[in-house]
Amino acid sequence: MAQSLLIRAARPVGFPDHADDRPIDLRIEDGRVTAAGQGIDAPTGAEVIDARGAWISPGWADLHAHVYHGGTDISIRPSQGGLAHGVTTIVDAGSSGEGNFVGFREFIAEPAAERVVAFLNIGSIGLVACNRVSELIDQRSIDITRTLAVIEANRDIIRGIKCRACSTVTGAWGITPVKIAKKVAKIAKLPLMVHVGEPPPLLEEVLEILTPGDVLTHCFHGKPGGNILEDEELFGIARQVAAAGVRLDVGHGGASFSFKVARAGIERGLFPFSISTDLHLRSIDGPVWDMATTMSKLLAVGMPFAEVVAAASTRPRSVIGLPSEGRLAAGAEADFTIFELEDASVTLPDSSGDSATLDRLFAPRHAILGTRSVKAARLFDPTVHG
């Protein structure tokens, strides 16, 4: 762990109150910023990171991943998608429900080197046996009283409610679980994240329930009957709710991202609010791999560089209550990702059976969180998979 650190000549990007992208030096002591500018001296014995040619942003934050390793059959360890790959903050999106959250807190969130928080699943059992045993079979799957009690006892870690709304999960129960989840979110004064996919319920039904601050994840999935480009009326509704403040999240995953849908949506001005991986055991070896590769895919379909960085750092951080302003000011907690943008020519799959050729790849180099300074790299290796 680095008690003193000097980052030399990194180009800032993604800081809402620092628009100047000229290289700066950044001094960090005991996990906090002590100086930012040019020509800053390194403290005696400090670790020095030469970041010439690289960018520095607020720490990347993955708004949708599954890291309840051992508690569900799909979850990875936080370290597999975290600091070693440029991500300082991970939001576990519904792996645990009220019935097993205590294990998530004690054995995952608290020991992790990364900052790990959660959206609590409205289903009491969470994703114990994901897509084999639904967490939302019928009304017995939800206990509102216990869910609210768990939220109150763990508000430092629980930052929202998660509900999966697709036929493979809710079956004939349809839209009802989303309505219950929204009621719980309103009582708890937390945002609601809804997973969408194969209907029922219809995406239109879900969008009627969401309000500003809520999150629609898998916004660019390509599944029939529920993707935003299938009819003009639905696309118009999606644009309206996004403009009103509903946050569209990528949530790539093993089955929930389409290059065609993303490219068409972005060409028509519908950008995602946040870029997340939906990283789990069934997506980490492809088609997702890591946050940097997911960011690279959004860059390839037309999302501007600065928008991609904001969607992977500042914006997801805002969803879970992390400050965006003053990150380079003296006294701020050190929370940064240093990365490069590499030229490439690699063809990658989405999760719908299509592929695209990427000519630039995000490449994390260091992740800094408090006193931790970790050398980082992509999990995806273009020399192997390209």
Automatic annotation (TrEMBL):
It comes from the Bacteria. SUPFAM superfamilies: Composite domain of metallo-dependent hydrolases, Metallo-dependent hydrolases. Keywords: Hydrolase. One of its GO terms (molecular function) is dihydroorotase activity. Its EC number is 3.5.2.3. Residues 56-343 form the Amidohydrolase-related domain. This is Dihydroorotase.
